[in-house]
UniProtKB/TrEMBL annotation:
Domain spans labelled Chorismatase FkbO/Hyg5-like N-terminal: 69-191
Protein name: Pteridine-dependent deoxygenase
Cited Gene3D superfamilies: RutC-like
InterPro entries: FkbO_Hyg5-like_N (IPR049368), RutC-like_sf (IPR035959)
Source lineage: Bacteria, Pseudomonadati, Pseudomonadota, Gammaproteobacteria, Lysobacterales
Organism: Rhodanobacter lycopersici
Amino acid sequence: MLEGCGSRWAEAGPARAPRISYRMNDAAALLAEPDTLAVFGFGAGAAAVDDPRWMRVPLEAFDAPAPLEAWQVDDPVQHGRDGALRWSAGGGWLFAALELDEREHGGPAGAAHVAYAQLREFIHGRHERQVLRIWNYQGAINQGENDAERYKLFCDGRAAGCGDWFANGYPAATAIGHHAEPHLLQVYLLASSQAGSAVENPRQVSAWRYPRQYGRTAPGFARAMRLPAQDALAISGTAAVVGHASAHEGDLAAQLEEILVNLEALLASAGMPAGFDTHAPLKAYVRHPADAPRVRELLKQRLPGVPVLLLQGDVCRSELLVELDGWRYA
Ligand code: 3EB
């Protein structure tokens, strides 16, 4: 049974995937379009705009000027705030975001706990309660040793805040370290009124089954998510992980090649044709700014014409130099 008001899904099936694109417009012009679900600016130079749909992502882009990222849907969008949480919804899709100061919540674990608990509570009251994709940006992600590394504390708090939220399957996700205000935790998500289908990578141990050496709390995420209408694949942060191990320590080009093999394995696992095209926006998170030109050059050769936004970001395992995520339309 379909729930809620609109009956259009009963006839047309699940809503068409949001259109995700990199655009050189200014934020105000994109936000003025009635079907805009969210707009993202990157780095310290991003404008300050007072709109719940506007996000300043605390990652510096290696391109200047950096494009904005726009999410657009097929119906008019409503938006609002609920305490610190901001949201927008339209056409069966929901965007929700929280930015917390870890110091107000007892540190990285406490902040992750509160962020996920608040998102869960908000989503519970919505028609669009199927969470498909989550992004997490944490300061100083690799600081601290072993189980006290800040990413591991984030994983502890995330699991505690989620409780049994994702007992029936995890959403796709990204978790990346930023270099802005170190105590800032930013979490945002895409949800839908319809369930998607999670996709795992046969080359990789599922993240929630990672062995103890990677932390007390295994990270809860799916490698990718097919959106409800089966017309797009949301691809999680994908690094040079094979099995559960990090591959090619210290070798940027080999890590990038391994990522491309992982991405192709994911597409095959999702039943999609191989390769990326000019419609599918990707992001490359690069740990060392000095590596950015090399990453750009290698991706230009290996993924010609594919829009890839290069951002400075730290993969949650300190030996990993680069990670890709993004979208693929069917
Ligand atoms: C990996 O394959 C790399 O904790 O949400 C990728 C995507 C990674 C999401 C997360 C972590 C997360 O394990 C790390």
